[in-house]
Description:
Elements: H1 13-31, H2 46-59, E1 63-65, E2 69-70, E3 81-82, E4 86-94, E5 97-106, H3 114-131, E6 139-141, E7 147-149, H4 152-171, H5 182-185, H6 191-201, H7 212-220, H8 226-231, H9 234-237, H10 244-260, E8 264-265, E9 287-296, E10 301-311, E11 316-323, H11 330-342, E12 349-351, H12 355-366, H13 371-378, E13 381-383, H14 384-391, E14 392-393, H15 401-407, H16 419-432, H17 435-473
Parallel strand pairs: 5-6, 9-12, 12-13
Antiparallel strand pairs: 1-4, 2-3, 4-5, 6-7, 8-14, 9-10, 10-11
Helix pairs in contact: 3-4, 12-13, 15-17, 16-17
Residues 178-180, 184-185, 188, 190-191, 194 line the site of iron/sulfur cluster.
Amino acid sequence: MYGDRRRQDPPSDYLLKLRQDSIRHREAVLRSFQPLQSPQFAAGDWAAGARATLELMAQGVDTIRQAVLVTPSMVGDVQLVSQPDLLVKQPGWSCWGNWVYTPIDIKLGKKPKLDYQVIAAYHAYVLSRVQGVWPGESCLALRGGQLYAIELYRLVPKLQEILSACLRDLRSTEAPELFIAHSRCDLCHWFGHCYSEAKATRHLSLLPGVTPARYDFLKQHHITTVATLAQTNPGYLAPLPGFGEQVAEKLVHQAQALLDNRAIPRTAPQAPHGFPLWPSDLPEAEVELFFDIEAAPDQNLIYLHGVLVVDRVSGQESFHALLAESRGEERRAWHDFLDLVHAYPHAPIYHFCPYEAQTVRKLGQNYGTASHHIDALLGRFFDVHKCVTDGVTLPIESYALKHIARWMGFDWRDEGANGAQSICWYNAWAETGDRTYLEAILRYNEDDCRATYHVKDWLVQFSQPYWERLYQAI
Length: 474
Ligand code: SF4
């Protein structure tokens, strides 16, 4: 309402793709609810939309698409408007007679995440004010075809909390305090604006591990700056709800690392010399493999196994892109991957985050690879992300590969490349047949493998003095 819209970011390719996917999904769901009736009104005229919707509801039509529901009375000085994707007539009693309406919201996600559920509860709340009775349920039509009924008794108190905070913010002339949460903010068109403000003020939300709930507790204890947090005794924070010893130590280290721009080894009670990384976590071998997968989740397709083979004896490095150019080639790409890793039977396989290991297990099941082969293969997997988060606190905003490797001095060849963009590139390749999209994906994937290699070597060097001290003590 109050922001200067010229400061909004343009939508990314990935956001545009999500919007397109969302429209397709919505149309597919709506086709299964035919016949549908829609209120007729000029775009943006909510009052006319609400009147037209009321007429359809009073007539008792079976299914109403894109209804406009408006609370008959004001909530304070605000009128609540909701636009559920569908209203479906059910037996029951409402102000019109022996029928009630149930709202259904159509969402692209596969899981009924809390944000969706709160919105579904909101539709039910506004609908209850319009038809004089609460609907028996409020549903989400999710990707994958399932209809999910939310638990209204559980969601309504949460909705009330959010609604009053929202009304308070809308009435205020001050902008609400921003809080950067990458999971929510990354797709928001205000991100560039909010992020630069957060950077300028060194907002605590930029520290990994500072969640909204923890931030509230920190504020209650007057810890609102990185400098104050860096000076806080972790023992003071540990008893707070949602903290505990490990989180408290990590948060204080995080602030100290940021202030001094340095890496801080994590202390762990189980490690006699205060460093939880062991040589066995990062084994060195004559040949090491660095592995990264690219997938198109919307097509349920694993289309690229990228493997960087590093021969430490000869000093040679070779990148292998085991690519499925279409869905029909996924099996062949999987077998090419197995052939490659079996050609280096003693090489450790480094990857970043659990996704690669989970996907190998899944592909093994899908393509009938013997489970003992998969178990043996996974026994050679080492998760570099886990080693970083277990072993060290870094002055970064996120423990994603990009942030970690960049801080350690590694750079990607394509500035704008990321996982979301590679999904768009693969779609563009499928639609146009233009191989430059595939080349961009391969370059990005190879750089991810090389970044994992860079981080692994950095960790080995960083932890070397600690291991030497440990050996001397033994
Ligand atoms: S804080 Fe995040 S979600 Fe809120 S407006 Fe800013 S970028 Fe968007």
